[in-house]
Amino acid sequence: MTEQMTSKSAAAIDRAKAQGRAALIGYLPAGYPDVQSSIDAGIAMARNGADLIEIGIPYSDPVMDGAVIQAATTEAIANGFRVASVFDVVAGITAATDAAVLVMTYWNPVMRMGVDEFSRRLAEAGGAGLITPDLIPDEAAEWFAASDKYGLDRVFLVAPSSTPERLAMTVEASRGFVYAVSIMGVTGARQSVSSAAEKVVADTHAAGAERVCVGLGVSTADHVREIAAYADGVIVGTALVAAIRDGGVDAVAQLTKNLSAGLGRAAAPAQNTAPAQNTAQA
Amino acid sequence: MVDASTANSQENVADAFLQGGASLRNAAGPYFGSYGGRWMPESLIAALDEVEDTFEKAKADPGFLAQLKDLNKNYSGRPSLLTEAKRFSEHAGGARIFLKREDLNHTGSHKINNVLGQALLAKRMGKTRVIAETGAGQHGVASATAAALLGLECVVYMGAEDCRRQALNVARMQLLGATVVPVTNGSQTLKDAINDALRDWVSNVDNTHYLLGTAAGAHPFPAMVRFFHEVIGEEARAQILEQTGKLPDAICACIGGGSNAIGLFHSFLDDASVKIYGFEAGGDGVETGRHAAAITLGRPGVLHGARSYLMQDEDGQTIESHSISAGLDYPSVGPEHSYLADIGRVTYEPITDTEAMDAFRLLCRTEGIIPAIESSHALAGAIKVGKQLTAGKENPADTIIIVNLSGRGDKDVETAAAWFDMLDEDGNVKGTTLSTRKPKGPSERSNLEISTEDASEDQN
After folding, report:
1. What is the tens place of the pLDDT at every residue in B442-457?
2. What residues in A contact B306, CB-CB < 8 Å?
3. Residue B34: φ, ψ to 5°
4. With contact defined as beta carbons under 8 Å apart, do B296 and B332 qualify?
5. Rounded distance, CA B43 to CA B51, Å?
6. How many H-runs (helices) and E-runs (strands) does chain A carry?
7. Strand pairing class (B179-183; A52-56)
8. Which of B40, B191, B312 comes nearest A136 by C-beta?
9. Under a CB-based contact definition with an 8 Å cutoff, are residues B126 and B431 in contact?
10. What is the per-residue pLDDT across B391-445, written as a single tens digit (0 to 9) for each?
C-alpha cells in the first residue's frame, strides 16, 4: 500500500488497533430515505462505535448488491436523489464526528461527473476516499491520478477468486485498506460467515497489505466477533440498511452499538432490546 | 441522415487504414480505441480470465473449430441463404437488395452461432450450468437449445416486461428444459436481466458459465461473440461475389448490443468500397426521449463491464431505453461499434418504431418473409440507403445492398397484430374468435398486463 501517512482510513483503523481491537465500518446509502436522514444515521453510527462510515451512491445498475440494498437505492433514486448530494452527506458527518467517511460507488456516476471533479469535491467535503466495487486497478489510471492529487484513499476489492498475482497488484494499488469480499456473491445478510474469508485476509496480508477489512454477509455481533479475530476491520451493510428501513436512525444507533460489542470493547448497554436484536439478524 | 458525405468519409476512413497497412478486422480487445475494457467486480475477473484463456486456446485448436463447423452445418443449417429480394427492392430506389437469411437458422435467428460456440467452451471449462439474459427471447431460446444439445443446465433471466411481450418464447425455453426467471428490477428489460445474470454468475461462478448473448460486456465477450458470428459476413461476402460477381455497395444491420451487425460487418471492414450502416432503435423518435439509440444520442460511459456509448442522465444513471423491439431495447451498445462510429467507418442511425413496422409489413407482402421486428429496423434503413445510393443513377440495379435478416418474426406476430390494428377490443383477431391472448381484457393494454401476471404465476 502506498502513502499510508496521509490516509484518513488507515488512521481510523490504526486508532482501533491501538485499542487492541478491529475497526467497525458501517455502510448506508446516501439519500435513503432522504439526505438529512443519511447524515443523522452516519453520525449515529459514528457515535455508537463505527470507526469508519461508508456512504453508498445509489445507482441504477448495482450488480454487486442484493435485494435489500437494491430496494433502498432504487427508492432513493425514485425520491429524487442526486449524486452531488453525497458530498453534503459526507460533509455533514465529518463536521460532527471524527469518523473517516468513505464513499462507496459504482464507477459510471464518477466518470460522468469527471473523475478529477468528483475527487476534488469529495476532498473538499472532508471525505477519506472511495470504495469502488466495479473498478479494478487495471482500469483505474484516472483515479490513481486524482486520488494522489487530492490525497484520497483508494479502496479496491479482493475476492476468494483473486489470484496471487492480482492480490499483489491490488494491494499495491490500494491506499487506506483493502476490502476483502468474504464470499463469492452479492451483498446481503447470511446465516454464517464464509470460511473463505479468513483465507482471503491471510493471503492479502501475505501479499503485503497492512490493513484488510472484510465485508459481505456480515450482520450480527457474532459475525463481527468471528471476523475481528483475524481482520483489521469489519464492514456491515445490509443489516444497517434493514435497520434504517424498519426503525430509522434510532435503530441504526442501536444496531451499531450491538455490532461494536463484537469488537471486544465495553459491552453494549443492558437495555438492548429484543427488536433491535432481531434487526441485527435480519 | 443517410447522405453522400458520410458515405464518402466511410470510404476515406477505410482507405486510410488500408494504406497505413492496418486492418480493422480481428480487433482482439480488450480495447477498441478508448472503448471496451473490464469495468467489473474483482470477484469475476478470474472467471473472465478463464473464459479468455479457454477461448484463445479453442480458437487455435483445429479440433474445436471442426466441431463448431460441424454443428453450424449439421445442426444450425449453415450456410444460411443469401436471397435476392426483388419485389422489395422496388421500394428501395431500385437498388438490388439481398437478404442474409439468419432467420433460417435453427431457432430462427443469428443467436445460435454464438451460443453453440460458447456452450462448447463451457463444456471445455468443465462447467455444468449456463446462464443467459434475453430480451426478445431469441438468445434465451438459443441458449436453452444449446444447453439441451450439450447436456447443460440452463437458467435464463428475462425482464418481466419482455416476458409479457414475448410469452411464446418463454414457453419455448421451458419446453427446452430451461428455467426462466422473470426479472422485476428496474425497467424489467434486457439491461436488468443482465444485472441479475451477473449477480447469479458472481454467486455460482465455480460451475456456471455466463453465456452472454451480445457483443458487449467485459473482455473477452465483445471479441469472442464477434468471432462466433463472423461466419455471417464470411458467407455473405462469398455468396454475393458468387451471385453478382462483385462486392456490395452497402451492407445494413440492426443494432441493439450489436452482435448480428458486427458478425456481418467484420468481413467487409477492410473493403473500402463497401459502405456500412448500423440501425439503432429510434423508438417513438429520438426527439421524444423514448428510444434506444445509444450511439446517436448517448455519451461514453460504463455499463455491464464495458466502456461504450450509453444512454445516461447527468448523474450517470442509466436511462431506460424504449423500443417496440425487445431485442434492441438496450441502453448501450457493443464497444467495437462505438469505436467504428467514432472513426467514421460505420454510419449509425436511428429507425423509428413506425419505420420499422412499415418495413416489416413490406417484406411480408413483397417477399413472403415475416422478419423479426429487430431485423425490420435494418430493412427500413436499407430502403433509405437504397434510395440515397441510387439517386440520379441511370441504372439503379447496379447498386447492391446486403441486409442482415437476423431473425424471423414468428415471435412478433402478436405485437404486429396489435400494431396493425388487427385485433378487436377483446384481443381477438378481428372477424374471428381467435384470441392472441387470454384471458381477455377490456383493451389491448390491460389485456397484456393480465397476461403478464399469468406468465409469472406459471413460473413460480
Report:
1. 444 433 343 433 433 3
2. none
3. -95, 10
4. no
5. 14
6. 12, 9
7. unpaired
8. B40
9. no
10. 999 999 999 999 999 999 998 998 999 999 998 887 788 888 777 665 444 444 4
